[in-house]
Design a protein that fits this description.
- This protein is of the alpha/beta class.
- It is 28% helix and 24% strand.
- It has eleven helices and 16 strands.
- Helix 3 links the parallel strand 3 and strand 4.
- It starts with 5 loop residues before the first helix and ends with a strand.
Length: 372
């Protein structure tokens, strides 16, 4: 990476900022940003706004609205596509434009395409530099990267705990474990994912709305509730997830053997039900759920967990990623609920580990996130 200059990093950072303008809006496509630079100045910018719309490179070329100068450079956060989908190949557009230098952040994660765009550009006599701010460019598209490689939805668990790993006081009181800044950051990640899920305990205790509220925008993803035997529907009143203006976005996951009368009650209220078989562990079959999500085009799921759901998901390795918000406080109470109950470990080698760890300080709180 000796050829990477500070200017290259600055322009790529700007391309990343542009890509984030479509935060959570491009599924199943990646977020991508591009800038065109001439004589040390940015002369055009573009980003991919949503699936089916022009890619970032094409948007930048359109914004330029003229032929680029001979020594121009285009910076793009993801390797330009070399195949035709709903839009044309970006490599063709770049070659046709006359741009002579391309700087790339991340390589296309699709094994069938990785590096092909670079090969096409170099074969056309274009100078290509790749790997500039590669880590940030890869991290931008966690959902897309997983989906395109694994063919399975990217499932992440989010939890907010104290320093001693407690989700709430012994009474169940949990509002709030973390600060406003941490909760605002969680809203940003809610907007990133096309779907969000909670367990029945969380609904019964907190009556959440599971929308993303950033500034004036209120956005509702697909909302899943894990409720094996429809405990929630059996209550005197239904929670806001089942009655608010976004109730058509709510899906209740239950066992096929759950009470038919309660199922009908939810259906009559406009709530969608997915019946799932019970797995060997006594919980709803996770693999069947993943496959159903994939079939519905839901490629990412953000699960806001309480202690029981967190324990089941982490200890059985049912999630791909973890967001752990931690507040600088101790409950110091053995009766307060925390994570962990299904395993008995004998050494540190049995610990559940994260890789590709990212950390952020949010006021007094912190966020640690990474792949499981």
């Amino acid at each position: 990476m000796s050829d990477v200059s500070q200017s290259d990093k600055i322009y790529m950072s700007r391309a990343l900022d542009l890509a984030r303008r479509a935060w959570g809006q491009t599924h199943p496509n990646p977020m991508v940003g591009a800038v065109i630079v001439e004589d040390g100045e940015i002369v055009a910018e573009g980003w991919h706004s949503q699936a089916g719309e022009a890619h970032a490179e094409v948007e930048a070329l359109r914004a330029l609205a003229r032929k680029p100068k001979v020594e121009s450079t285009i910076y793009v956060t993801l390797e330009p596509c070399s195949t035709c989908g709903r839009t044309g190949a970006c490599t063709d557009a770049i070659i046709k434009s006359g741009i002579r230098r391309v700087v790339i952040g991340a390589i296309d994660p699709n094994p069938a395409h990785a590096g092909k765009g670079i090969e096409v550009l170099r074969a056309a006599g274009i100078e290509v530099l790749d790997g500039v701010l590669a880590g940030e460019c890869v991290d931008l598209n966690l959902i897309f990267n997983h989906w395109i490689v694994k063919g399975s939805p990217f499932v992440a668990a989010k939890m907010a705990v104290t320093l001693d790993g407690k989700f709430s006081a012994a009474s169940g009181h949990s509002q709030w474990v973390t600060s406003d800044l941490a909760r605002e950051d969680s809203m940003r990640w809610r907007r990133y994912f096309p779907a969000i899920a909670v367990g029945a305990d969380t609904v019964l205790c907190d009556d959440p709305n599971l929308t993303s509220r950033i500034g004036e925008e209120v956005w509702c993803p697909r909302r899943f509730v894990f409720d094996r035997y429809l405990r929630i529907a059996g209550g005197k009143t239904l929670p806001r997830l089942y009655t608010d203006e976004f109730k058509a976005q709510t899906v209740v996951l239950c066992a096929a053997t759950a009470c038919q009368m309660l199922k009908q009650k939810l259906i009559d209220h406009g709530i969608c039900i997915w019946e799932l078989p019970i797995g060997e562990d006594g919980h709803l079959d996770w693999q069947v759920f993943r496959e159903r999500c994939a079939g519905e085009g839901i490629i990412g799921l953000y699960i806001e967990t309480g202690p029981r759901l967190a324990t089941a998901l982490l200890e059985k390795r049912k999630v791909d990623y973890l967001y752990l918000y931690q507040a600088p406080k101790f409950m110091s109470d053995c009766a307060a609920v925390g994570i962990g109950s299904a395993r008995h470990t004998n050494s540190m080698s049995e610990a559940i580990k994260l890789s590709g760890v990212q950390r952020a300080i949010l006021g007094e709180d912190s966020l640690t996130r990474g792949h499981l």
